Amino acid sequence: MKSHYPIYQYEKIFTGLPKDFNARALEVFKYQYLDNPLYRNFSDRFHKSPENITELKLIPFLPVSFFKTEEIKTGNFDPEIIFKSSGTTGMEPARHFVKNIDLYRESFVKGFELFYGDIREFCVLGLLPAYLEREGSSLVYMVAELIRLSGFHESGFYLYEYDKLYNLLLKLEREKQKTLLMGVSFALMDFTEKYSIKLSNTIVMETGGMKGRREEITRVALHNFLKQKLGVPQIHSEYGMTELLSQAFSFAGGIYKPVPWMKAFVREEDDPLNLHESGEGLLNIIDLANIDSCSFIATDDVAKLYEDGSFEVLGRMDNSDIRGCSLLIV
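Above: the chain sequence. Below: its structure as tokens.
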């Protein structure tokens, strides 16, 4: 089937932003409305079409739950990879059909380097047990690629090898080597309950996810514990999910700054079409990297959105299952 958006090029996603974001997003809405039958049917239920959409707040946002039951595709293609959420026992996992894996790779590499600099300057250590033990994790794919790009022979995944990880961190600290330690919450807690260390050259980035492995605690309590045990002034965080191909990053306090090809809104729980650019509500995300699926996603996260576009995740909507990449309740 011929695309209704033949002029579209993937590289346009990452250029000319944020100045051209609104025009680009409206263009993507038109493309996805025409070439994604499921999304078109969803939009038509609200009598929304490219003819009557003049601003971003009027665009219908697809509930994230659709990724559990439907194949969300814009255009007709065989995916290079299918990312799957961890889900919880008995719950259907979300699936993201990715047409071009290079697009995801470019999104997270550009996003990381925008906020942190050249990945080749970092030794990258991944502490992602449970995620490594299943297939289809977009988080594992991202960290594996950052490990590969870093070029350091010490870069790699460390499952439950806490002794080895501790000794390596000591070595990297002695060498004053810039290091990125990315880990899920329960694994970082397991590690730091066994070892205390003073890190001066390491960014510690938690990616959420107790996943039933430990009792849930607040994000503030988790970060305070990790700061005390690792000797770092702040704990960084990454906001991402299976249904998105882009991330937002927090440098401190759980306040996330999205990449320029993302934009957040909050919606009212009792009126999901009423969107705001600041305040508290349920989090909606525009992710232009989702060009081949759906760029307009209504998440189940409760958030506080600030006027500069950054946001804080406060918890999850009632009756939504807690997934591996969800953040801890404040």
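The longest strand covers residues 296-305.
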